[in-house]
Amino acid sequence: MSSTHSFRRRRAALLLIILSLSMGVSSCASSGKKAVRDDAGNELSLIEETAHGLFYSPESDDGVRDMIRILSQEFENQEQRITELFNYHSDKKTVIHVYAEVSQFYDVVGRVTEGTYDLDDNTIKIYTPLNLSSPSVRSEYVFQLIHEFVHSVIQQINSKIGQVKWLDEGTAYYASGQLEAELKSPTRHPVFPDFEQVASPSFFDVFNQSAYFYSGTIVKFITDKYGQESLNKVIRNPDHFEELLNVSFQTFYEEWKAWSNHSLMSIVKENFSG
Ligand SMILES: [Zn+2]
Question: Which residue from 198, 189, 257 is spatially nearest to 225, judged by alpha carbons?
Fold first, then answer.
């Protein structure tokens, strides 16, 4: 009787060890919650977990899974490049909510956009269509994801960077590769912004898409002339822009404009004529 009892106790203890071991293993292998809720109350399930990302979506059919598989692979292809560029490291995986229904996405983010990053909940939210078979559509939405990932990296480095919009958006437009792509097939932009326009909080309202282009060229100019390290210092301390680059903002503006006219706009013109 007592030997049966102790056998049962040992078996129970063994089961407990096996159970806790397997729980430990599963919590190591999967660092994301299986399901989360967004601000509009939709339940999103974990569709794909990669080395650095957790991809959630309100839908989980094969079409969404295929689309997210493409996005997550593209994300992993560029994750290290971006984090190394900004000397950023995090042990946490990037949380990405992917919506395939554009109206649902607008409802969640409360405005007409294709992607956003919120520092408050540390979550990238993007709309991506199910069909990414066209190369131009695929690259547009991969750019969108990487653009928001750059925002997430630089805003986690410095939570105040969102207040310096040309730097926040310009860095995202430059580091995502969107600027480079645009320089290869340039679109026409309105007249060069003047100094006050660039510095104004309404720059993006007035210049719309062109503000991304011009802000991106400012960031490219900083890295080309002053180096990536200088850009990293400015991102960490934008209030000390002039001391860090050892130039007044007015002089910097004049240099950027001259550089754009000579080197950058010649690329644009070459592409236009070619
Ligand atoms: Zn942006």
Answer: 257
